[in-house]
Amino acid sequence: xxxxxxxxxxxxxxxxxxxxxxxxxxxxxxxxxxxxxxxxxxxxxxxxxxxxxxxxxxxxxxxxxxxxxxxxxxxxxxxxxxxxxxxxxxxxxxxxxxxxxxxxxxxxxxxxx
Amino acid sequence: xxxxxxxxxxxxxxxxxxxxxxxxxxxxxxxxxxxxxxxxxxxxxxxxxxxxxxxxxxxxxxxxxxxxxxxxxxxxxxxxxxxxxxxxxxxxxxxxxxxxxxxxxxxxxxxxxx
Lengths: 113, 114
Hints:
Structural class of chain A: mainly beta
Order of helices and strands of chain A: EEEEEEEEEEE
Radius of gyration of chain A: 14 Å
Structural class of chain B: mainly beta
Number of strands of chain B: 11
Oligomer: heterodimer
Number of strands of chain A: 11
Number of helices of chain A: 0
Distance between the termini of chain A: 41 Å
Shape of chain B: globular
Shape of chain A: globular
Largest sheet of chain B: 7 strands, mixed
Strand content of chain A: over 45%
């Protein structure tokens, strides 16, 4: 069945360093790839997303890259800050029409001051 | 706009009891979904709907029923609660547009089945 694998499950970085989280999806028909941030006890919130017709997208300190051939996509956070500490989830979807999100299992990011 | 609302926030059930988790959105979104979140397992899709009167199963539908009689509401029914259904449940809604299908999540319902 459809599957999204996410690595690593935990990641600790020093404040100011970069963090990279990677996901692999199985459904070749997926065309929409969002990333969500979830703080402790709160709801997931979208931080960045990318469509399959784009290879990279950037928003200030965060960026997402997509390799559709390899079915990989990654989240890059530069100049990390303590408030970046949270759980991050990737997801894959076929988007409009069938509409079905499959989420990865999450990465707990700790930014050490 | 209230966004996506869920009730109750917390619930304790005994094994075998039934209950309905409520979800409503006021953004006129066509798509709505229910997820459960368990430690180390991310968000798993239970059921989803692409519009009023249309529902479909997700990854883990067993033990749950849904209906979508209006655009705004998407209740989740637990037919006979089991301890394995102890989890945090999130409802989400979204619409499709050219570049994004962003999902908006509700605050969640923490359910414990004893």
